[in-house]
Amino acid sequence: MVSPRPNPVRISQRLTPLAGMANLHADGAEDFLDPSDRRASIWARFWRVTDPALRDAGIKGERLIAKYRLGAALLLFSIPLRAVVIAPDRRENWVGFGISLAGVLAGVIFLWLTKRDSVRPWIGFAASVLDVSFVSGGLAAFVALGYPLLAVNSRVIFEVYFLCIAVTCLRYDRRVCLVTGITASVQYMLVVWWASAAIETGPTPMLSAYGSFDVQDQIARVILLGVATFVSLTIVLRVQQLRVLSVRDRLTGLMIRGYFDERLSESFDRAQRTGEPLAVAMIDLDYFKSFNDRFGHAVGDLVLVSVSQTVKQMVRAEDVVGRYGGEELIVMLPGLDRAKAAERMEQIRLAISQVRVVLENTPPGGWATQADLVHDGPAVAGGTVLTASIGVASWPEDRAETVEALVYRADSRLLSAKATGRNRVVATAGSTDEFAALSPVRA
Questions:
Q1: What does the pLDDT average to over 392-414?
Q2: Domain limits of the chain?
Q3: More confident residue, 174 or 42
Q4: How confident is the model at residue 188 (pLDDT cuts 50, 70, 90)?
Q5: 3-class SS letters over the chain
């Protein structure tokens, strides 16, 4: 969490409604008006995936892949099993049987890992590298058993590399895609090197029903693996961009309401299973409608962007901030009870009060103040543009049986904060709650 700091918003004469729009990238990062957001190198931004929407999509994809992996492993296991039953004296049949059995066991383990509430980010890397290693292990086993031409000319096992690379697209993670493709290429080149050495030192001439060793064919195979990696990586990058754009508000870069509700519902179900607390906070900017009416929506958009940045700087990595509608924001705080959530929201309220705006008609050293929004008085140096009213609710303290009830309690306390003077945090039930739930006050 970052401590509160002044965050001035300067309004130029060429201001347009798009000036404060977030530039969303595939990694989930946003470039706002601060140029420091653009300093990261291309490679650093490629390797950094911070957006919770991409992490959430990756977890769901990993769970889907785990089910498919186990199903495919069981289906493929039937082939070497049948071969062993028919011809138990052939060593290559037992090699295929052992590799297939290991694949089934790995499928069971990864399915168990993805069924847990907390899915570690390393699982995608480990699963992809292991899948590729199974393929390479099968080819290497043929070399060890004295069938090097079968290893380099396989028309069944080699193609599984492409399946492993293609499956990474479901993980929404370009890093896993790149690592999988590089691993497949390097491991296959090592198998080819080992097989070529075995062929050179083997019987002369080495004749086999599995063809002959052709360097050009092996180079072509490695190139095809590289092309498959590039195509999959391109698909993942495009899917990531679409995913980010589909769940984030284009102006502020915050989560849209639909996706936030989905995440909140999942967290609420998890909290009920584990017993861990879950807090929700509703934030509404005071007098924002009057601000828009006087200074225009373009200036209002810039202020809303700055406030959104400030809130995001004040929350933890596991917290989720969404734009609930208009100038109203909503924050999910997993693992915090009502008292801790209220303390965090008080820090955010103070941070929002540090967001200031310099208007064209403001004298040097002066700031537009909240008084300007209600009265026609002059700007006062050091005054704040907006304040915020915040309502907080938590489970299980508020005994909400549904996630909708939890959000309703937070919203009613937000209205209570507005009805009792604004610029405050309300986190406990009181006599004003029922009144606030019926009050139309929002400005």
A1: 91
A2: 52-247, 253-438
A3: 174
A4: very high
A5: CCCCCCEEEECCCCCCCCCCCCEECCCCCEECCCHHHHCCCHHHHHHCCCCHHHHHHHHHHHHHHHHHHHHHHHHHHHHHHHHHHHCCCCHHHHHHHHHHHHHHHHHHHHHHHHHCCCCCCHHHHHHHHHHHHHHHHHHHHHHHCCCHHHHHCCCCCCCHHHHHHHHHHHHCCHHHHHHHHHHHHHHHHHHHHHHHHHHHHCCCCCCCCCCCCCHHHHHHHHHHHHHHHHHHHHHHHHHHHHHHHHHECCCCCCECHHHHHHHHHHHHHHHHHHCCCEEEEEEEECCHHHHHHHHCHHHHHHHHHHHHHHHHHCCCCCCEEEEEECCEEEEEEECCCHHHHHHHHHHHHHHHCCEEEECCCCCCCCCCCHHHHHCCCCCCCCCCCCCEEEEEEEECCCCCCCHHHHHHHHHHHHHHHHHCCCCCEECCCCHHHHHHHHCCCCC
Of 164-168, 298-302, 374-378, highest mean pLDDT: 164-168
Confidence of residue 192 (pLDDT cuts 50, 70, 90): very high
**Segment 259-276, tens digit of pLDDT:** 898 889 988 988 888 889
Alpha carbon distance 32, 11 (integer Å): 14
Pairing of strands 328-334, 320-325: antiparallel
pTM comes to 0.67
Highest mean pLDDT among 22-31, 133-142, 384-393: 133-142
What's the rounded Cα separation, in Å, for the pair 163 and 152? 18
Q: Which amino acid is at 399?
A: R
The structural architecture, per CATH, of the domain 253-438 is 2-Layer Sandwich (3.30)
Q: Is the pLDDT of residue 378 over 80?
A: no
Instruction: Please say whether the beta carbons of 131 and 73 come within 8 A.
Output: no
Written as six digits, the tokens of 141 are 């086993």
Query: What are the two backbone dihedrals, phi and then psi, of residue 441, each rounded to the nearest 5 degrees?
Result: -60, 125
Question: Structure tokens of 349?
Answer: 């309220």
Tokens found for residue 102: 């290991």
Q: What average pLDDT does range 101-111 have in this prediction?
A: 85
Tell me the per-residue pLDDT of 314-350, one tens digit each, with 9 for 90 and over.
Answer: 888 888 999 988 888 999 999 999 999 999 999 999 8
